[in-house]
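thought: fold this chain, then report.
action: predict
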Amino acid sequence: MEKCVAPISRASQLPLAAIGWREWATLPQLGVQQIKAKVDTGARTSVLHAFDLQYFEASQRLMVQFKTHPLQRNTSLVVEAIAPVLARRQIRNSGGQTQERPVILTPVSLGQQLWNIELTLTNRDMMDFRLLLGRTAICQRFLVHPGDSYLMSQFSRSAAHADESNAAGLA
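observation:
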């Protein structure tokens, strides 16, 4: 499991960039070009909305094929992806229930930064955000500004509002 260890000396590190409580992200290896992420420092693990999970073996590795709806409140766009299963973990969801989820390792892009994160896969249809970035994904990379949004995003705030309006059928 990925852990975040506090640095011995902050003086030797570059200043951390600030991100908002929500940001636009991309998951390039999964074919997700734009997804709104909630930055959740209260959650250890990151999670992606996924459904129709199908497991299979390829080259003696367990793989998972799944679908995702990357846009909030919009099920018309479906992205299909395949990834190696890194592990299966018992995760406590927001309702306090424990469930076994597959874990994959994939690059995520926020602003100009690209790095690998562990993502669990589960159905988040009832949740507001399709991607949740937990604290292990952002540790020692960013400072979170809880009162602002889209500080690092390559997509504009107007795009965020257009996404919300389109999903609601307002545009």
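thought: worth noting. The first strand starts at residue 17 and ends at 20.
final: tokens above.
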